Amino acid sequence: MSDADTDHLGRPLVAVTGLGIVTPLGWGVADNWAALTAGRSGIRRIRRFPTEHLRTTIAGTVDLPNEAPGDVVSAPQRVETMAAFAMEEALSQAGIGAKGHFPGPLFLGMPPVEFEWPQRLDLTRAAGAAPGYGGIVAAARGRVDLYETFLFGGVGERLADRFGTEGAPISLTTACATGASAIQLAVEAIQRGEATAAIAVGADGSVNPEALIRFSLLSALSTRNDAPEAASRPFEKSRDGFVMAEGAGALVLESLAAARARGARVLGLLLGCGERADSFHRTRSNPDGGAIIGAMRNALADAGLAPSDIGYVNAHGTGTPENDKMETLGMRAVFGEAAPPISSNKSMIGHTLSAAGAVEAVFSLLTIREGRLPPTINYEVPDPAITLDVVPNVARDASVRHVLSSSFGFGGQNVCLVLGAPPA
């Protein structure tokens, strides 16, 4: 391995050779990028289940192929379908993984799983005259379909079998940082020399009644139900919460040396990963911003870059009053008055939760490749406490070589990624 294939710490440089994506804006990289840079919103009224008496009735839903009205599709099934599509697109672009064998491990970021109300009600009906816990357990005996659907590691096992990845697939969840955590684990496996290739995926399909109610009880969701497209308003003064969404992002990662050896087209580099935990509160960040600031600085240090090297920041940018305030604090602490432009994809696609870190990594690489910054839409009234350049409402042409992509999760789980242009 030559010096040109290693980073400032002597580790293998990690190349990105394939991208795949599904969001409320569409299926595939081309449709998503066109809609994103056009400033189009994918937020709509929920049609999947009744929303009467709910405080929030909007989301960034993704309709699956051949999904008919009234179909009961569980969150794990949605995750698997969208993750498989994103993986197929990424592998096809990378030109690797033919004949059902991918020469590396799978790292899958996905939400926790549990029985949902349709399954619970089905078991209660099956219990008949004994609808208590004991009766429900008895009714579930022998239901292999339920076990396989709602086994957390089951999705990863089926995807690994389908695409022929090597070793045991790793399934993980770190709240809103999950997709970025999956990428970080894949990068570190390549840097340690444990693999020359890996595929990292973040996927989420959690728009169901129970999840919606739980986030609503936390007062985390926007209630701007009358205008779904205008509901997600990161960094704007009237923001009132995030909008739940679904999707998947996949990246094929390889050591730069391995990618070059097989003649692959390098789309970009994954230069640095930084994480920092904060045990301050289940949902809120510590007001001192220490974990957010630390994750940003750790990512820059891991990449061997200075703050001035970053040309654009793909924000976590949820649109909650708390997050956007803390992200601004972190930006000013790290970048000072010379902060680069920052914008939030979530203004258009909503918060894809466990998928967000991977989806936004895909968008960050497209930003570098296409030389165009996606906008933050619905930016009408500036918040005087947020003095950042948020690329308001309209996409902007810009030559960018390095992007910082931030993911700040509930429970203080924070991961930042530094992505770079492909080598000359």
Automatic annotation (TrEMBL):
GO terms under cellular component: cytosol
Listed EC numbers: 2.3.1.179
Top-level taxon in the UniProt lineage: Bacteria
Entry keywords, A to Z: Acyltransferase, Transferase
Residue spans crossing the bilayer: none
Name of a matching Pfam family: ketoacyl-synt
Residue ranges annotated for the Ketosynthase family 3 (KS3) domain, each copy included: 11-421
InterPro entries: Beta-ketoacyl_synthase, Ketoacyl_synth_C, Ketoacyl_synth_N, PKS_Beta-ketoAc_synthase_dom, Thiolase-like
Entry GO MF terms: 3-oxoacyl-[acyl-carrier-protein] synthase activity
Metabolic or biological pathway: Lipid metabolism; fatty acid biosynthesis
GO biological process: fatty acid biosynthetic process
Stated family: Belongs to the thiolase-like superfamily. Beta-ketoacyl-ACP synthases family.
Entry protein name: Beta-ketoacyl-ACP synthase
Species assigned in the record: Roseomonas acroporae
